[in-house]
Amino acid sequence: MTRLSANTLSSVPAGVRVPDYDRSQITPGIVHLGIGAFHRAHMAVYVDDLLKDNPDWAIVGASLRRPDTKEALEPQDGLFTVAVRDASGTHPRVIGSILKVLDANTEREELLALMASPQIRIVSLTVTEKGYCHDPANGELDQRHPDIVHDLANPEAPRSAPGMLVEALARRKAAGIAPFAVASCDNLPSNGETVKRIVTKFAALRDAELGEWVNAVAFPGTMVDRIVPSTTDDDRAMIADLIGAEDAWPIMTEPFTQWVIEDNFPQGRPPFENAGAQLVEDVEPFERMKLRMLNGSHSTMAYLGYLAGYEYISDVMGDEDFVALIHGLMTDEVMPTLDMPGVDLGAYRDQLLERFRNPALKHRTWQIAMDGSQKLPQRLLGTIRDRLAAGQPFERLGLGVAAWMRYVVGIDEKGEVIDVRDPLAMRMMAIAADAIDDAEDLYIGLVALSEVFGTDLGDNQAFGETVATHLDSLLDIGVKETVAELVRS
Ligand code: CS2
Questions:
Q1: What is the mean pLDDT of the chain?
Q2: Residue 1 pLDDT > 90, yes or no?
Q3: What is the distance in A from the centroid of ligand 1 to the CA of 457?
């Protein structure tokens, strides 16, 4: 079978949407760091919708860690499939907005030179929570992070996202070129402000004057939402059948997509609103809503679901007790902490439950369970802090935290090893090994991780009682029984 590429694009079946613009006429305006599946299912699609009328806003992607996206897309001239899946079937579309992918490790100079050139007006990022090299509990740059230590010692050959951004900005400053806007599309609370704090700090550590200059750069906040499970070999085979060509890395996603953007792009931006994005003055409330409702539910379902033997989120949603738990978590514990005038939170919740149920979206609980130490603070712990401050209960959120603690022990209910992927995995496993199944010791060991829990939660009696009681129950009677008892009580 032929490979998807510029030459074979014309043979894609008529029903499959392909770029409606001349790809030889588009030029880059955006560099995107962290060119993974999430970006390709989201921003790359919005830009694809706009290139016909705005040809100077194409994307050059960069991978900071592995060159696998470059390897997949290069032989395809950057073309790839986005397949929207639901009960009605699989609907593929070929996206052409990514001109090229650079590997930051081997093509660093080319990437930095491009980022420093005036045609690039936006640098966007999806480098995941841990890619910011920060302390998730307080959102500050982690100055002891090995990549940060490396990049401060070798500022011209950076390997971290903050290091890359600052080196490119320093080059622009030296050349008298106005800075690009930095648009984080990651699931961080107040992602614009958080990334600004981290990057400005890094710049100031390099040089105080550069720090001041970077402090004036625009860091628009964004809230990005689309569920994107990792692609499997079965997906690849299915897509090849549908588009009549081989695509080494098609992207599977859901019909839903949402992008809320703070309108702060001094060097201009594509008219994202024409592709369905919402441009607003303050993204923070939307981010909080999404992180607490969607991602808080996701993480709770991921840990509990994985331990209960459910491979996919849609399997978790087939268990009525789990559905009652998540419904109650959102309704009784999260929604009262949100202030969203004009948004029907009940409808938002029901839509989330529907999205989680999507039977065609094979979204692994294990995938969402990854990097919990980086995710918990903004997904569950912030909500719990609000509940504690208001003197209100947080049983279900507390069970979510306890489930994470149970999960990172690294052994499931059948005694099998769990592949725990987390920057803190080694430390957490050492804590678990010392605690040997004692809920109280396990709780005390894990809650002392201040980069996750800060310094307040460990000393909080109500937090300790709620979480440790659930953890004890998870270890004692197991996940399914614990969930069933909680929803019945
Ligand atoms: C998920 C998110 O993997 C995860 O942690 O919770 O990637 C989630 O699918 C997206 O935020 C949806 O927009």
A1: 97
A2: no
A3: 25
The HSE-up count of residue 405 (CA atoms within 13 Å, CB side) is: 35
Evaluate: CB of 225 within 6 angstroms of ligand 1: yes
pTM across the whole model = 0.96
pLDDT beyond 90 at 436: no
Domains of the chain: residue spans and CATH? 9-280 (3.40.50.720), 284-488 (1.10.1040.10)
Predicted pLDDT of residue 168: 98
Q: Return the best residue to mutate from 38, 43, 295 for the ligand 1 pocket (most ligand atoms within 8 A of CB).
A: 295
Give me the torsion for CA of 163, 166, 168, 169, rounded to 10°. 170
Beta strand residue intervals within 271-415, DSSP E: 278-280
Rounded distance between C-alpha atoms, residue 62 and residue 323, angstroms = 39
Nearest atom in ligand 1 to the alpha carbon of residue 368 is 3
| Interval between CA 57 and ligand 1 midpoint (Å) | 26
The 10s digit of each residue's pLDDT in 378-425 is 999 999 999 999 999 999 999 999 999 999 999 999 999 999 999 999
- Confidence label for 437 from pLDDT (cuts 50, 70 and 90): confident
Cβ of residue 422 lying under 6 Å from some atom of ligand 1: no
Cβ burial, residue 14 (10 Å; 0-12/13-18/19+): exposed
Phi, psi dihedral angles at 175 (to 5 degrees)? -90, 0
CB neighbour list of residue 240: distance below 8 Å, 6 or more residues apart = 1, 246, 247
pLDDT score recorded for residue 38: 97
User: Is the C-beta atom of 298 inside 6 A of ligand 1?
Assistant: yes
| Cβ 368 vs Cβ 240: under 8 Å | no
Q: Which residues does residue 60 pair with via DSSP β-bridges, in sequence order?
A: 31, 100
What is the distance between the alpha carbons of residues 460 and 239, in angstroms, rounded to a whole number?
A: 51
Q: For residues 363, 378, 124 and 209, what is the CA-based torsion angle, rounded to 10 degrees?
A: -160
- What are the helix (H) ranges across 2-41? 37-41
What confidence score (pLDDT) does residue 452 get? 96
- pLDDT (average), residues 215-233: 97
- Residue owning the nearest CA to atom 5 of ligand 1: 368
Q: Which atom of ligand 1 is nearest to the CA of 363?
A: 9
| 258 Cβ inside 6 Å of ligand 1 | no
Q: Is the CB of 295 under 6 A from ligand 1?
A: yes
| pLDDT per residue as tens digits for the range 31-49 | 999 999 999 999 999 999 9
Burial (CB < 10 A; 0-12, 13-18, 19+), residue 175, is exposed
Query: Which whole number is the average pLDDT over 184-195?
Result: 96
Measured CA to CA, the distance from residue 187 to residue 295 in angstroms comes to 9
